[in-house]
Amino acid sequence: MIVTYAPRFLRQLKKLEPRLKAEAKERIVLFKENPYNPTFRIHKLHGELSECWAFWINYRYRIIFEYQAGGINFLKVDDHDGYKNK
Fold first, then answer.
1. How far is CA 5 from CA 27, 59, 83, in A?
2. What are 21-34's pLDDT values in tens digits?
């Protein structure tokens, strides 16, 4: 599987607090190994992001991505609280 990273995703990942950044990186590695693991709780998004999917880093944060021919493109790190207020 080919994985690409949007510039926005890389900027957001870089700004995370160290513990959360480490947790996100660990989840990305695990996702690359087996994206079908049920612990990721992958789900299709709605509204403006209806073409996107997401999986959880932890209870509050998720990674939004899109499927592309032959791979996945990570788009952004999203805060669940910000999502609820949209």
1. 15, 22, 21
2. 999 999 999 999 88
Spatial separation of the C-alpha atoms in residues 66 and 70, rounded to whole Å: 11
State the Rg of the chain over Cα: 12
Q: In this structure, what DSSP letter does residue 35 have?
A: T
Instruction: Say if residues 77 and 57 touch (Cβ distance below 8 Å).
Output: yes
What is the pTM for the complete model shown? Answer: 0.87
Which helix (H) or strand (E) segment holds residue 27: the answer is: helix 18-33
Residue with tokens 């590695």: 29
SS3 (DSSP) at 5: strand
63 neighbors 27 (Cβ within 8 angstroms): yes
Helix residue spans in the chain (DSSP H)? 7-15, 18-33, 80-84
